[in-house]
Write a structure and sequence with these properties.
Elements: H1 2-17, H2 35-40, E1 60-73, E2 83-96, E3 101-117, E4 131-134, E5 141-159, E6 162-177, E7 182-201, E8 204-222, E9 232-236, E10 241-246, E11 260-278, E12 281-297, E13 305-324, E14 327-351, E15 357-383, E16 392-409, E17 412-433, E18 436-458, E19 469-470, H3 472-483, E20 486-499, E21 503-516, E22 525-536
Antiparallel strand pairs: 1-2, 1-22, 2-3, 3-5, 4-9, 5-6, 6-7, 7-8, 8-11, 9-10, 10-19, 11-12, 12-13, 13-14, 14-15, 15-16, 16-17, 17-18, 18-20, 20-21, 21-22
């Protein structure tokens, strides 16, 4: 068995140096290969550096899947739905053209509909540097989200042991609310990476890549109902603390029938170091530094930029793999930190003699200072692996997150410190009987947290009180959702069938139930049902 592991290691080194294909033992598909195993067992495939695609040891593998999810329950965040469904289709493919070139592709479409939704008006309030929050619960209604996602990447060898790669990740989203105050969102998210990897020796491989990301989420507010009704929103700079604005047809954050963009640019670089410590021990490391800049509004002499933001992101990811006969043990760990600052511009409109409107900016105030820490660690055991398909999959993982916010609306401030952690475990068993495969997964996790909901204070008590407002009910709902003690259990069953041509068809059922021990502002249970059918080839 030790000899078999040694032979696999030698094969990996040969692929790394890209020896002519005729000298590499070809892999013959059986049809039972697991795409999840192929992807999760290779840390290069999670890297931003597409040059790492050269490390795959399978010639080609693809799958296509259609899925449907149904979710119900009152144990939800303030902006989520208690009754929603989602459907979509997903196609992924890894393809080795020859001993030097590898391609990767992914096409995904999803459609979401949720009832009784309100709160945040951005697609993901935890991605945005600030939020626009509906002021009244009475305006909750149906929302729909369509996402189109396309990813393409390739890696090729330019010289012995030296590979270059590029990846293009393009996503567009359409989001809409169908009850006044209505909003329509259009998002474009483009990520381009350019990278290289070089095997310095049989025991050490290094890589580096550059990443550019451009994200624009445009939002337009509309009202089709009673035109005399007034709609207010909170410009939430953090912890639901900010300014109250009224839906207007002429000006402001929520100006009617005008798309206002939230624009962001990210630039970053990542360094990868992959060590072969022994034929049985592999150690992958990746360090990433990113810089983020953006604004909300439109740049121009006659248009307003309401806010501007910057952040710095540091991340480390490690992956230690232990090979033992037909088993693979993986220890993974991740740590990241983001420092985010958001500023609001003060401005006045003036009109030139020729009738042109001009925006004059007078000052800029720091509204938000946020620090986000994320820690995660996990252990995965793939036991009895044969033909890229394990008999057992055992997982243990843990996460701990911390978010500190300081919102300043002079002369007042609000601080918040939230901790959240969870631990989970799961076991999967795959049984092959002739042309049939039966897979069962059982999982369990425990989620909890702590911290303080809010701490208000004043910088200078002699200064006149500000006009800041707060939506406390959302503070309590969000804090309870993030920190309340709860358990989650899930069961998954998959039936697979092998067809001529080594094509595998499958159908999968998954059910999960989350139950909180004690809640006051939100519900106690949440149900998730997922069905999918697909084919691997």
């Amino acid at each position: 068995m030790a000899k078999k592991v040694h032979n696999i290691t030698i094969l990996l080194l040969l692929v790394g140096f890209c020896i002519p294909k005729k000298l590499i033992a070809q892999y013959e598909k059986t049809g039972w290969e697991s795409y999840e195993y192929v992807q999760e067992s290779n840390p290069w495939l999670y890297s931003d550096n597409a040059a790492g695609l050269h490390s795959i040891t399978i010639d080609n593998f693809s799958y296509a899947e259609a899925y449907f999810d149904k979710k119900n329950g009152k144990l939800k965040n303030y902006f989520q739905s208690d009754n929603s469904f989602q459907s979509g289709a997903d196609v992924k493919s890894l393809y080795r053209l020859n001993s030097k070139t590898v391609f990767y592709g992914n096409v995904n479409y999803s459609h979401f509909e949720g009832k009784n939704m309100g709160g945040a008006t951005f697609i993901d309030p935890y991605v945005s540097p600030f939020n626009i929050v509906e002021y009244a619960d009475s305006t909750q209604g149906k929302k729909a989200l369509d996402i189109y996602h396309l990813t393409g990447a390739f890696s090729t060898e330019l010289a012995r042991g030296f590979n270059v790669g590029t990846k293009l990740d393009y996503k567009t989203s359409n989001y809409a609310k169908f009850k006044d105050l209505r909003h329509e969102n259009r998002e474009m998210d483009l990520i381009l990476t350019l990278g290289a990897a070089y095997r310095i020796s049989p025991f050490w491989e290094a890589g580096i890549n550059y990443t550019y990301r451009r994200r624009i989420e445009e939002i337009r507010f509309q009202s089709y109902g009673n035109t005399d009704q007034q709609f207010n929103s909170l410009i939430d700079f953090g912890v639901f603390y900010g300014h109250q604005v009224r839906f207007s047809k002429s000006d402001g954050y929520t100006e009617a029938n005008t798309f206002k963009p939230l624009f962001e640019e990210f630039q970053g670089t990542s360094l990868q170091l992959n060590f072969t410590l022994s034929p049985n021990i592999l150690f992958f490391n990746e360090l990433t530094l990113k810089w983020r800049d953006g604004y909300y509004g439109k740049r121009g002499t006659s248009s307003v930029v309401y806010t501007e933001h910057t952040s710095k992101i540091n991340e480390y990811r490690g992956n230690l793999t232990l090979l033992n006969s037909n088993d693979r043990h993986i220890l993974s760990f991740n740590i990241s930190r983001e420092l985010l600052k958001n500023y609001e511009n003060s401005y006045q409109r003036s009109t030139l003699p020729n009738g042109t409107n001009v925006i004059d900016y007078s000052s800029q105030e720091e509204m938000l200072n946020k620090t986000i820490w994320k820690f995660s660690a996990g252990y995965t055991a793939y036991l009895g692996v044969k033909d890229y398909s394990p008999i057992w999959i055992l997982k243990i993982n843990g996460e701990a997150n911390n978010m500190k916010q300081n919102v300043s609306i002079y002369p007042n401030y609000r601080k918040q410190d939230i901790n959240q952690w969870n631990v989970g475990m799961s076991a999967s068993r795959n049984i092959i009987k002739s042309l049939n495969q039966y897979s069962l997964t059982l999982g369990f996790s425990y989620i909890s947290g702590g911290g303080n909901e809010k701490k208000d204070g004043t910088y200078d008590s002699s200064t006149q009180e500000s006009t800041s407002v707060s939506l406390d009910r959302y503070i309590y709902r969000e804090f309870e959702y993030l920190t309340t003690d709860r358990v989650r259990g899930n069961v998954t069953f998959r039936y697979s069938r092998l067809f001529p041509g080594k094509i595998k068809g499958y159908a999968q059922f998954n059910y999960a139930l989350t139950n909180a021990f004690s809640t006051k502002h939100i519900g106690k249970t949440f149900n998730e049902l997922a069905l999918s059918v697909g084919v691997g080839f």
